[in-house]
Design a protein that fits this description.
Elements (H helix, E strand, L loop, with lengths): L1 E5 L6 H15 L3 E6 L13 E5 L13 H16 L3 E5 L1 H14 L7 E6 L2 H4 L8 H9 L3 E4 L2 H11 L5 E3 L12 H10 L6 E5 L8 H12 L5 E5 L5 H10 L6 E5 L4 H5 L4 E4 L8 H8 L4 E4 L4 H4 L6 E4 L4 H12 L2 H19 L1 H17 L1
Parallel strand pairs: 1-2, 1-4, 2-3, 4-5, 5-6, 6-7, 8-9, 8-11, 9-10, 11-12, 12-13
Length: about 375
């Protein structure tokens, strides 16, 4: 198949999943065309069967806001014709799904083009639900040839908010590789924790919804019991607030800000426990990546996280904002080696059994084939 993939290329779950999906499909012999305003974050180097098409938005004084959705639709139509695409897989309803719809309409009677839309979270719970976008988000869902959501929680939210006429299929996010501890990981751990303190890891885009400040407050409470290190991976609008809080609490020697990183798995693998206190999480890709590295997860019970992180089995859940409960869970894990090892094995096994690419990618391929056969 020849598949166009449109996504946000930034440091976030939807772009990561779209990119990893494209790589997996290309490795299975399909031809993949990424269509976006920048190269996707995790698309490094050369991949056979993968092509990137940059969307450029004209800058005219008349446009107060550059019309990216229209430029994207035009680019999609051009690529569909030139590359004879079978379908476009739009990740995130706004603007990708509606742009794909416009592209299909432009090509009516010229070239058949199917649209798959994958809903990732804030395109439904935040952006799409805004009155300014609600009707067009609903329209883009209903005009798609097939729609998927990354969790049952997100599916239910979509049905509740938009009452779509299209059925929604749940296809979970996935991990690609089984992580092995290496000598390089041990060296990195020694640098991050020179005195052998346990390492708490957090990975996010540092938006307010991720509650990064809670990770620092949790660390402070854990540190009252024993020395610990907090490693923060990622960047975003709340980073300055987090840095200020670290200084106020005099935790500068215990908290490491690594910023955006490429070797996510290598960094996760050096941790002892993963902390994700999000206010809302449609799935929790960062937690899945941590689980695949064998990290017990302490997360909020928001959104789709309970579908991924099983309380008492792969880690622990706590109410959003309950810093005390999260710190208690971390202390419990770090002071009980047998429990930590069992949670670690359970987390790794669950990630591999239910969320590995070998299980998830065939579901997408089957969906594509079903849509194209209609």
């Amino acid at each position: 198949m020849k598949i166009g993939i449109s996504c946000y290329p930034t440091y976030g779950g939807s772009g990561v999943v779209a990119t990893e999906l494209g790589i997996e499909l290309a490795q299975r012999g399909h031809e993949i065309h990424f269509i976006s305003y920048a190269l996707p974050h995790r698309l490094h180097g050369y991949y056979e069967n993968i092509f990137f098409h940059e969307v450029k938005v004209p800058q005219y004084p008349l446009f107060e806001y550059p019309p990216y959705a229209l430029a994207l639709a035009t680019k999609m139509a051009d690529i569909a014709i030139h590359e004879q695409l079978d379908l476009i897989h739009a990740h995130y309803a706004i603007p990708h799904a509606i742009s794909a719809y416009l592209a299909r309409e432009m090509l009516a009677g010229i070239h058949p083009l199917k649209i798959i839309t994958t809903l990732h979270g804030t395109d439904i719970t935040l952006v799409g639900a805004d009155p300014s976008f609600l009707r067009i988000t609903q329209y883009s869902i209903n005009q798609s040839d097939a729609v998927t959501a990354v969790s049952n929680f997100l599916k239910e939210q979509t049905v509740q908010t938009f009452r779509p006429t299209k059925p929604i299929q749940v296809i979970y996010n996935f991990i690609r590789n089984e992580i092995q501890t290496s000598s390089q990981c041990r060296h990195l751990r020694q640098k991050l924790s020179p005195n052998g303190e346990p390492i708490i890891v957090h990975l996010s885009n540092f938006r307010p919804v991720k509650r990064v400040l809670d990770t620092i407050l949790v660390t402070q409470k854990v540190r009252e019991k024993f020395p610990v290190r907090l490693v923060l991976i990622g960047d975003g609008p709340d980073r300055p607030l987090a840095e200020n809080l670290v200084e106020q609490l005099e935790l500068s020697k215990d908290v490491v800000f690594l910023g955006k990183q490429d070797d996510i798995y290598g960094l996760l693998a050096v941790g002892d426990v993963f902390l994700l206190p999000s206010e809302s999480e449609s799935f929790g890709l960062a937690a899945l990546e941590a689980m695949s590295c064998g990290l017990p997860c302490v997360t909020s019970d928001a959104g789709g996280l309970p579908e991924l992180n099983l309380d008492g089995e792969t880690g622990f859940l706590a109410p959003v904002g309950d810093v005390q409960a999260m710190s208690d869970h971390i202390i419990k894990v770090l002071t009980n080696p047998e429990l930590k090892e069992q949670l670690s094995q359970n987390a790794r096994n669950r990630a591999k059994k239910y969320f590995h690419s070998e299980k998830i990618i065939p579901q997408y391929i089957q969906l594509y084939e079903t849509v194209l056969s209609r």
